[in-house]
Write a structure and sequence with these properties.
single chain; alpha/beta; TIM Barrel; 3 domains; elongated
Length: 680
Amino acid sequence: MKQMEILSPAGNPRALVAAVRTGANAVYLGLKEFSARRNADNFDYSELKAACEYCRERDVKVYVAINTMIKETEMPAALECARRAYICGADALIVSDIGFISALREHLPQIELHASTQMTVHSPASLKALKSLGISRVVLAREMSRDEIKAFCIEAKRCEIDVEVFVHGALCMCVSGKCLLSAALGGRSGNRGLCAGPCRLEFSSSGTGRYDLSLKDLSLVPYLKELEAMGVASAKIEGRMKREEYVAAATAACRASLDGTVDAELNTALKSVFSRSGFTDGYYKNTLGADMFGIRTKDDADAQRKAFSFLHSLYRTERQSVPIEISAVVNENITEITVKDRVGTCVTVTGEKPQTAQTREIDEQSVLSLLTRLGGTPYFAESAKSRVQSGLFVSAGTLNELRRRAIEELSKKRRFFDRRADLEYHNKPSEPDKIQGQKVFTKFLSSALIPANITTDGVILPINSDFGKLPENLIKVVELPRYITDEEKLKNRLSALKNQGVYTAFCDNLEALAIAKESGFKAILSIGFNCANRESIEALKKMGADMITLSAETNMSGAKALAESANIGIFAYGRLPLMLTRNCPIKNTKTCKECKGKSALTDRLGVKFPVVCRDRYCEVLNSAPIYLADKKDDLSAFGFIILSFADETPDTAQKIINDYILGASPTAEFTRGMYYKNIP
């Protein structure tokens, strides 16, 4: 079985060197644009080329992250970024935007693609869709348990897709790819690589001074051999925003764990260099709860400084990790050294003829001793041979110089690559369909909240709702879970719902879309697909999407430019789900019985954010609903709109529906969301 890869973060060239010297098999990094860590130093193209050459010489792969949501106007620039990364030597791209992935497959098919954790892959149901997109590796959601990862690996192997798992580093409270908190509160989008980290600030479910959205850092370092046995191909370390000392500590600890060694000093340094009151393995062991939460304390910061000296020693010198064969021939005609790596790269250098020995002749053992002096290089002698004719003399200086020349020439050959990639891309204008009337879908948390004489086109209800009593003229839409933990149970439920006249599903992820289509349902896609470009629309249609809700982070002008057919809509009313969480923040201070599903988080300014408990996950909702009823001219561009109700009474819901029919101005607290902002 192939050993699991250790994949380390490189926020800058210094961190890259630290990762390679402490045992990384691969590094991942970002460029100045389109990276989910745009606040890291990141790499320009000249630095990327140098990084790829450095890593290629040392048998280390380089993965470039282009994993943000791509706006329609950005697609040409994003594709050019991918082309240049490939030419510079990137071994793969880490990607998340479905439209961008689709465009890459068409225009740069030679590039290997890894599905970012931003795609929220957490269930095997998504694998066929990922395979159809040309994905060769998937980075799993960090919220998955040991058993879920194991089951996923079995199915991924059948689809010939590698699995990558985060094993150390920061944990976001929100499932990656589903967070709107930073964008909504501060105008800095996590899905666009500029998360401001507001979840690390004070959010309290009870009283003050609590940090109920701040999780401890993840650490699965002790379980690497177990993950390898499951079939996990790559152990990923989070930390492109961290210092090189952190990268060195985490990489060295993972290398030691995978090699089956225990280093107490290293483990202490790992905890010291960065933690939030310690580490957690709660998701992996399926032991969710208050123990998973933590913040950065003064003691944590003090411990960090003390660890730096030890950590610097870990990457001060080259790591000799590349095996080579080295041999020498010394006879009356020639002095020659040959070096060869495992892939067949071979170099031979020749020096002057040896002299006749006057007092001391050179022998095979002394030649071998000089050949294997490879300190300061990334190489070690896997085998060394010498053939020496008796009666001759060659100075140690001459042999050392020949060895240095041979190694330098080998390194040049190993670093060299010549890639070319042509790219001609132009945004494809699509033929607009004339919109024949706009459909209005209303979404409720339960059927009890639906107005008695509702007049909208369709109603969206959670998976366990009773649809039988809804009026026959309504389109009945079942909302599939935003985080799927039991595919078979979900399929069985969908089969039963057909008896209640339900044939349409509201889907938030690739897993839900795949299950809906397999079950014979039409599919309306939610804002969770982060759809913000025409390529995404076309790709999702090919996957079976019937109607697509655009990203809530798309401004109105950009959204209207994409609304060229009746199957494009927007989230037009309601409290945006700012976070999708698997660990309930309310459980820090209340039991489920005490909560009764009616709790909220309060931030440091006293603003309340409702928390809704769903099927094995929670949603943190915005403090105020989006209201666009008085923007009828803008709304008329879309084939459908979604009005989402959370805590509104049936009477209030009916009034809001009427307001949207009439185009009434708001009468209560509201927000325009991000539709009239320019989120960078």
